[in-house]
Amino acid sequence: MEKPKEERYRRGKLSFFYFLVGTLILLILLALDFYLYKEKNKSLLFSNIFRKSEEETLLEIMNPVLKSFSPRNVEFDEKNGFKYWKFKTPSFAESKAQAFMIFEKLEKEGLKGRMEWDKSKPDRVKLSVFSKKKQIGVVIFESMAVSEEKRDGKRRFEGEVAIIIDDIGYSVELVEEILKIKEPITLSVFPFLPGSKTCAEIASKNGKEVIIHMPMESNNGGDLEIGIIKEKMGEGEIKERLEKAIESLPQAKGMNNHKGSKITRNEHLMEIILKELKNRNLFFIDSRTSDYSVAMKVAKKIGLPSSERDVFIDSINSRPQIEKNVLKLFKLAKKKKRVIGIAHPYPDTIEVLKELLPKAEIFGVKPVFVSEIVMGN
């Protein structure tokens, strides 16, 4: 039996409508994918259509650098299967600036750079370039001038960076691993744990700085740490817990908060805590676990030496992210002059710090203890 003409017409209109909607959605998805390709260099379709080889990406990064140098100050070669550039710069500062600029571009384009500085050649910066599978290039910047640093033998820095490693006290073995980092490191030790005293003693005897990692109540609840300071405690009980913590770790030069988002936003409680630290000649570092923290405001009000965390280094516990955050801290140090990063004793964190802290001066920054940041401020 033949369908009525109206029914066929209605179905035809409906099919056309679905076709238009589907086409519109497809165009929107294509536009979004193209935007991600152009702006973020990440897409599902266009990245594959217009994909460049890693060598082409490296050449694209290097071309503007090549144009900015006189040909007589540039050497190019292909060695051991990868590209090799050597640039002569007017100063060591220029060498560092150029190398760091390329380093940032490599990261943006999905390549990896490793900056190296040979103390036997103090006016030279080497940047090795890697794809996901292999090394594909080397870029060297070498100063033509005898730098002031080379003349008087002193390094000059554009900023200072302090690293605090939290959550110390559970494992002596982890402390011994951290001690392999030769640069200044501040260890924040939990009070009241069975291994707290030993960890603090070993760290202090081996030239590391110790502060107290004081447990404080958070907004999330479920805080099970021993000796925690809670919002409902009275002044006497808070002072008693602080006194016991301080006396248990006599090596400590200061304190930072473990968790504490509920406490650091409470001006009355922070005044009790910080006045007690001031009476004992200790400084305070705000770990910034709350965007509403008043710790710095109260510290300034009562005249307590203090500072705050700038970067959480391993909030995402993956080696690439940790490396990225350490380098972010170096860059921030050049801008702010003094910065603090907080990390944890994860294996990847320790390995990254072993690798990157000795290279801090390539980036123009100096690793220091957190007390030096506080006193500098």
Summarize the structure.
The chain is of the alpha/beta class. The protein has helices at 5-40, 46-49, 54-67, 92-108, 148-152, 172-178, 196-205, 235-248, 267-279, 295-302, 319-336, 347-356, 370-376, and strands at 74-79, 82-89, 112-116, 124-130, 135-143, 159-168, 186-189, 209-216, 254-259, 283-286, 306-308, 311-312, 338-343, 365-368. Helix content is 43%, strand content 22%.
Share of residues in helices: 40-55%
**What is the mean predicted local confidence, pLDDT?**
89
Query: How many strand elements?
Result: 14
Rg to the nearest angstrom?
Answer: 28 Å
Distance between the terminal alpha carbons, to the nearest Å? 90 Å
Which structural class should the secondary elements be placed in? Answer: alpha/beta
Structure annotation, total helices? 13
Query: Any low-confidence stretches, pLDDT <50, length ≥5?
Result: none
Strand content: 15-25%
